[in-house]
Structure of Cultivar specificity protein W78:
Amino acid sequence: MTHSSAKKTSPNQYRYAPNQFVTVGKIRFAYRELGPRSGVPLVLLNHWGAVLDNFDPRIVDGLSVSHHIIALDYQGIGLSEGMAPLTIGEMARDMISVIEKLGFATVDLMGFSLGGFVAQDIVLKAPGLVRKLILTGTGPAGGEGIAQVGAVSWPLILKGMLTLRDPKTYLFFTSSPNGRRAAKDFLTRLKERQLDRDREPTPRAFLRQLSAIKAWGRQAPQDLGQIRVPTLVANGDNDIMVPTSNSRDMARRIPNAELVIYEDAGHGGIFQYHSDFVPKALAFLAA
């Protein structure tokens, strides 16, 4: 099957969503859009060093069945122009500006890892903008172990190079047979898109984002009691990047938050359990 015929039959798959651009100030931001163009859009915010091709297509496709999905690249990452910000606060302000420029008065937000930091900050900075919040594999400002993300990650990034495996194998998944199988499946899914892939992050952008993550880990805790929107928190029970204790902590501090912890799963618990997570997220958004 050629790409053109596949495109005609499957326009509603993330792998075929075109790269689009919106300019805020002097900076052009890259995004992809999927799903029905009605209702409250669901904005997706991704992890450290992630570009548009790092969103799990199973999760995006599953959510796009009934939701208008907007997946974004941060400034200075992938096809977005500018310089990667050194603070989560700047990333949050960027994303608020992009959402407003796209013409949305209300959105739902789903942030994974770094994206969860940014999502929390968006809700606190612009509470009227967000209707519902999904925080996955993430933690609060000043959260346990967040300032140590680099120290935990570098040896496993090196291990990935030495074993010729994507470091996410070790960083996002457990070393059990389940974890290894889930890692392989996830990394295969990320390669499904053949055409018009996003640009890989530069080493400089990667390091600047790490600085922002460390600063978030050292920041004074925020008053999560001010988050008044319905919130779903999800993670694996063995997250070594943003320790799982942070998910429990956020769920305690955000009023009426719902918590889902997946067994024998790491940072990428929602990718490992995508077939459980997608219906949960859809039910949460529909409630």
Summary: The beta strands are 20-24, 27-34, 42-45, 69-72, 107-112, 130-136, 231-236, 258-262. Residues 1-9 have pLDDT under 50 and may be disordered. The two ends are 40 Å apart (CA to CA).
